[in-house]
Amino acid sequence: MRPARISGASGRCRPRHEGHRAGAAAVRDVVHGALEIGLRHLTLYAFSTENWKRDPEETAAILDLLRQETRAYPFEDLDVRMRWHGRADNLPQDLVDLLDMRERSTRDRTGLTVTTCVNYGGRDEIARTAAALARRARSGRLDPDLIGEQDFAEHLPRPDMPDVDLLWRTGNEQRTSNFLPWQAAYAELHFTPDHWPDVDRRDLWRAITEYTHRQRRHGAAGPAPHAPATAPREGA
User: Fold this and answer.
1) Phi/psi class of residue 219: alpha, beta or left (left: φ > 0; alpha: ψ in -120 to 50)?
2) Cα–Cα dist 24/175, whole Å
3) Which ranges of the chain does DSSP label H, i.e. alpha helix?
4) CB distance 187 to 236 below 8 Å
5) Nearest-angstrom CA–CA distance, 13 and 132
6) CA dist 134 → 124, 141, 158, 159 (Å)
7) Quick one: which of 15, 56, 210, 227 is 20 to 30 A from 92 by CA?
8) Are strands 234-235 and 41-48 parallel, antiparallel or unpaired?
9) pLDDT, tens digit, for every residue of 36-53?
10) Residue 213 has what DSSP assignment?
11) Whole-model pTM?
């Protein structure tokens, strides 16, 4: 999918808190749309490590909305597994407890996995992974001269997250904003003008349709002209 900040109202002269709530509604609709087409993974960028630079009142409102949505859990009757990715540092402990509880309570579900990135930063994730590798090398359990990509991937905070197939960014921004840089190394990029609160499942479906017409080579010669790509596993 895309770095999904739950915001975007300011461009239409509405209070930002209204944009955050509209963004939460968009998440619900997109999740239903993902289920309808059989998407396996959907990863949403809810709050970045850089978002702490915003006005304290706004950051508190965003975190409170995350708290409300996690507690209410609108997907209770659906085959949706909820996970979260990011640092617990600086987050309110009750929000961390809620996120952990929701992850535990849905861990046996086998349909769509929705990962919400909260207090997440891509460079921070890479730095944490490098630190984990350094500790393992210092303990003598890993030869630093033999460290490869697989070793790095196995020491990521969420090593079981699949690579991103399609990264969708809304709001007419032409950047990925520090979102899953390791996992999205070969992601197809999709940029759209509407802000996140204005999108719905139809926008997801259009993004997936465009993706299926792209050729994914990963450095190889590639498929024959006009051969469709496979549907994405990961919406980030």
Assistant:
1) left
2) 22
3) 16-37, 56-72, 93-105, 122-138, 149-154, 201-212
4) yes
5) 45
6) 15, 10, 18, 17
7) 15
8) parallel
9) 999 999 999 999 999 999
10) T
11) 0.86
